[in-house]
């Protein structure tokens, strides 16, 4: 995960817009008060991905994001197909997985997966 920035509660009050923009760009923010961590701010997609990954091991109920992540990790679907289903580009998902320390399979493993990646790239705008 990207190294977190640390802010006081006062900083959060005074610089909310700037802090949220940094978080949106992938930099987690730790809010400290009286020398202790009080909260951590994450980008919304990073949060959903982390919950989905954590839930794979601990919660038998499958959400859509968990189903996608499980299919990706079980090598049933490609990174491009996973990204398309999440509504992000392949490159954005790669960046997010890298930032979150999630397993990343680079490149297609066979011709069918390569064709799937090309088709997903063609449909992404």
Give an overview of the whole structure.
It is a single chain. With 125 residues, the protein is α+β, with helices and mostly antiparallel strands. The chain has two domains: 5-41; 44-123, no CATH class. 58% of the residues lie in helices and 12% in strands. It has helices spanning 9-14, 16-24, 44-58, 64-73, 79-86, 90-100, 111-123, and strands at 5-8, 29-33, 36-41. Strands 1-2-3 form a three-stranded mixed sheet. Helix 3 packs across helix 4 (64-73) and helix 4 runs antiparallel to helix 5 (79-86). It is elongated.
Q: What helical percentage do the residues reach?
A: 55-70%
Main sheet, how many strands, which sense, barrel?
Answer: 3 strands, mixed
Oligomer: single chain
Beta strand count: 3
Rounded to the nearest angstrom, the distance between the terminal CA atoms is: 27 Å
The side-by-side strand order for the widest beta sheet comes to: 1-2-3
Q: Would you tell me the overall average pLDDT?
A: 86
Q: Which stretches are poorly predicted, pLDDT < 50 over at least 5 residues?
A: none
* Count of separate structural domains: 2
DSSP summary: helix tally: 7
Could you say which structural class the secondary elements and strand pairing correspond to? alpha+beta
Radius of gyration: 17 Å
Question: What is the string of SSEs from the N terminus onward?
Answer: EHHEEHHHHH
């Amino acid at each position: 995960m990207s190294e977190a920035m640390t802010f006081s509660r006062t900083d959060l009050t005074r610089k909310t817009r700037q802090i949220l923009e940094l978080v949106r760009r992938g930099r987690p923010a730790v809010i400290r008060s009286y020398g202790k961590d009080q909260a951590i701010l994450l980008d919304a997609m990073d949060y959903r991905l982390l919950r989905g990954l954590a839930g794979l091991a601990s919660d038998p109920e499958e959400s859509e994001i968990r189903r996608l992540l499980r299919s990706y990790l079980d090598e049933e679907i490609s990174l491009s197909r996973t990204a398309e289903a999440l509504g992000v580009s392949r490159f954005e998902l790669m960046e997010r997985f890298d930032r979150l320390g999630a397993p990343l399979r680079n490149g297609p493993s066979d011709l069918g997966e390569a064709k799937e990646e090309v088709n997903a790239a063609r449909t992404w705008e």
